[in-house]
Automatic annotation (TrEMBL):
GO molecular function annotation: oxidoreductase activity, acting on the CH-CH group of donors, NAD or NADP as acceptor
Protein name as annotated: NADP-dependent oxidoreductase
Keywords noted in UniProt: Oxidoreductase
Database matches in PANTHER family: PROSTAGLANDIN REDUCTASE, PROSTAGLANDIN REDUCTASE 1
Source lineage: Bacteria, Bacillati, Actinomycetota, Actinomycetes, Mycobacteriales
Organism: Antrihabitans cavernicola
Pfam families (alphabetical): ADH_N_2, ADH_zinc_N
Length: 331
């Protein structure tokens, strides 16, 4: 049972010294528990934050502990009446080939609706994050002009597609021509701005001449600032993430345009998807329906090489090497 454990807290980007790859016994389920053979682990930008020894919305991963990670797989041993061997499940199983979990913390997934990796993407936390972040926190209205950063990633690609279903004008911001082409040609975004090759401020002036109603921010930094400068009266800014600063070793310069919130009577709200835990069922039903009807493209990028590739695969998020939801195939 190969596992990824936290060896040392990184400064800046995680590297080889961050992780220990160890062999452990396959755990036996106690009463009310199951053992899961992990098939895919999720890679999430938030993992970088979980490595810091600071107070946050979840406690930090402890040194020598198995790295926290959402995962999907199959029950390989059961000591619970709720699950049988072979059931497909998801949960917070960690970066490991086998995990035990209390049955109450394990969620059944249906491989006839979508393959396992999708349950870590459109039908998992990225889906819920896009759904509640845009519709509840962002208070989306039909016809809004919506701008989303990190647009070709797991959350951003879904945000733009859901906004399109509401008749919105959707502008995505992503790194590179290939990602931008995917947004406009395959996902139906109206415009894609390549922040690596053009001025975001200038492009927003051109493509959102009347301003932005909802800005869904996944990246923070200069891109947030460019979007703030274009807010429309009554705009909503959704603070979902700020990946541009996750590996910073110096304090990052703050936005210059935040007074635009005041001038435009706009609101900027942060949220954690866990706030909506009581409504995951609603989101899963809707998202599942949209995927089944072909209204939502659920794209995953599956990295291979097994659990030993965890550290290298995580870095892909910070280098922008993923399009859609990044997962690692474990077995
Ligand atoms: P993604 O699939 O979007 O992967 C990360 C992407 O971020 C990369 O592909 C890269 O795309 C982009 N990126 C990396 N570095 C930078 C940078 N310096 N500037 C701009 N873009 C950068 O990840 P997720 O969809 O899983 O997460 C997106 C955001 O949502 C993250 O900030 C995450 O922390 C947050 N989140 C928040 C939740 C909540 O409850 N609030 C829940 C889940 C996620 P590119 O090539 O375009 O640069």
């Amino acid at each position: 049972n190969r596992q990824v454990r936290l060896a040392a807290r990184p400064v800046g980007l995680p590297d080889a010294s961050t992780w220990n790859y160890v062999d452990a016994d396959v755990p036996e389920p106690a009463d009310g528990q199951v053992t899961v053979k992990v098939a895919y682990v999720s890679l999430d930008p938030a993992m970088r934050g979980w490595l810091n020894d600071v107070r946050s919305y979840v406690p930090p991963v402890q040194i020598d502990a198995v790295m926290r990670a959402h995962a999907v797989g199959h029950v390989s041993a059961s000591n619970s009446p709720d699950f049988a061997v072979g059931d497909a499940v998801s949960g917070n199983f960690g970066a490991t080939e086998y995990a035990v979990a209390d049955a109450k913390d394990v969620v059944r997934v249906d491989e006839s609706i979508a393959p396992l990796p999708t349950w870590l993407g459109a039908l998992g936390f990225p889906g819920f994050t896009a759904y509640f972040g845009l519709l509840d926190v962002g208070k989306l209205k039909d016809g809004d002009t919506v701008v989303v950063s990190g647009a070709a990633g797991a959350v951003g690609s879904l945000v733009g597609q859901i906004a399109k279903q509401h008749g919105c004008t959707v502008i995505g911001i992503a790194g590179g021509a290939e990602k931008c082409a995917w947004l406009t040609d395959e996902l139906g975004f109206d415009v894609a701005i390549d922040y690596k090759s053009e001025s975001v401020a200038k492009a927003l002036r051109q493509h959102a001449p009347k301003g932005i109603d909802v800005y869904f921010d996944n990246v923070g930094g200069e891109i947030l600032d460019a979007a703030l400068a274009r807010l429309r009266l009554g705009a909503r800014v959704v603070l979902c993430g700020a990946i541009s600063g996750y590996n910073a070793t110096e304090p990052t310069p703050g936005p210059q345009n935040y007074l635009s919130l005041l001038i435009n009577r706009a609101s900027m709200a942060g949220f954690i998807v866990f706030d909506f835990a009581g409504r995951y069922g609603e989101a899963a039903a809707k998202l599942g329906e949209w995927v089944a009807d072909g209204k939502l493209v659920a794209r995953e990028q599956v990295a291979t090489g097994g659990i030993d590739k965890f550290g290298d695969t995580l870095l892909m998020l910070f280098e922008g090497k993923n399009t859609g939801k990044l997962v690692l195939q474990v077995s």
